[in-house]
Amino acid sequence: MEFDFTRFAEQLINGLTVGSFYALIALGYTMVYGVLTMINFAHGEIFMMGAYIGLFSLNRMVDAGLYERSPITAIILTFLAGMAGAALTGVTIERLAYRPLRRAARLAPLISAIGISIFLQEFVRILPAMGEQVMGLRIAGNPIFPPGWQEAVIGVLEDFGGVQVKTYPGIFTTDGFYLGEVYVTYSRVIILVISMLTMVGLWLLVKFSRLGKAMRAVSEDKDVAALMGINVNRVISQTFLIGSALAGLAGVMQGMFYLQIRNTMGFVPGIKAFTAAVLGGIGNIPGAMLGGYTLGLAEVIGIQFLPAIYKDVVAFGLLVLILIFKPTGILGEALTEKKM
Amino acid sequence: MSSILESRSLTKKFGGLLAVNDFSLEVPEGSISCIIGPNGAGKTTFFNCVVGFYLPEEGEIIFNGKPIQGMPPYKITGLGISRTYQNIRLFSNMTAIENIIVGQHAHTKATMIDAVLHTPKNRKEEKESVTEAQRLLEFVGLSGEGDILARNLPYGAQRRLEIARALANKPKLLLLDEPTAGMNPYESAELTSFIKRLRDELGTTILLIEHDMRVVMKISEQITVLDYGSKIAEGNAKEIQSNPKVIEAYLGRGAASGLSLSRD
Question: Does residue A103 sit at the B interface (CB-CB below 8 Å)?
Answer without folding.
Answer: no
